[in-house]
Each structure stands twice: as structure tokens, then as C-alpha cells.
Design a protein that fits this description.
- The chain is an all-alpha fold.
- Helix 1 runs antiparallel to helix 2 and helix 1 (3-29) packs parallel to helix 3.
- It has one domain.
- Helix content is 64%, strand content 0%.
């Protein structure tokens, strides 16, 4: 492989890994999901590479309700 291509792929790999970690942490903590069931979003996050976590973070997260004083209602 060309060294310039490797230098391009390393940051993309780091971004993909970071997005996957953020999405998985959110998936574990969240109770409400939109469009797909919980396990469906897990498959999307893991299988679709950089696109999966991005789609989950934009479309998949359900609304979290908070109490008027700012506490989480769960």
C-alpha cells in the first residue's frame, strides 16, 4: 500500500472506532428507540461500519424524559 493511503486510512479508522464506541455506550444506556427494536439497532451499529453508528445517533435514539427539576424519570 502507498504510505499516503495508509496515512488517510488511520484517521478514518479512528473516527469509525470512536463513533462505534459512542453509539454502543448510548445504546446500552438508552431505554427508548425509534424505527427499529433494540437488537436491530445493535446490528446496524456493528455491521454498517461508519454509516451504522451515524444513522443510529441521528435517527435511532428515542426521547429521554426528564423531570421538571432536571432529574431523569427512569
Amino acid at each position: 500500500m502507498d504510505s499516503q493511503l495508509i496515512l488517510l486510512l488511520i484517521p478514518l479508522g479512528v473516527i469509525e472506532l470512536a463513533l462505534a464506541i459512542v453509539a454502543l455506550v448510548d445504546w446500552v444506556r438508552r431505554k427508548a428507540f425509534r424505527a427499529l427494536p433494540r437488537c436491530g439497532w445493535l446490528v446496524v451499529i456493528i455491521v454498517l461500519g461508519i454509516v451504522g453508528p451515524t444513522v443510529y445517533l441521528i435517527l435511532g435514539r428515542g426521547e429521554e424524559r426528564t423531570e421538571p427539576d432536571g432529574r431523569d424519570s427512569h
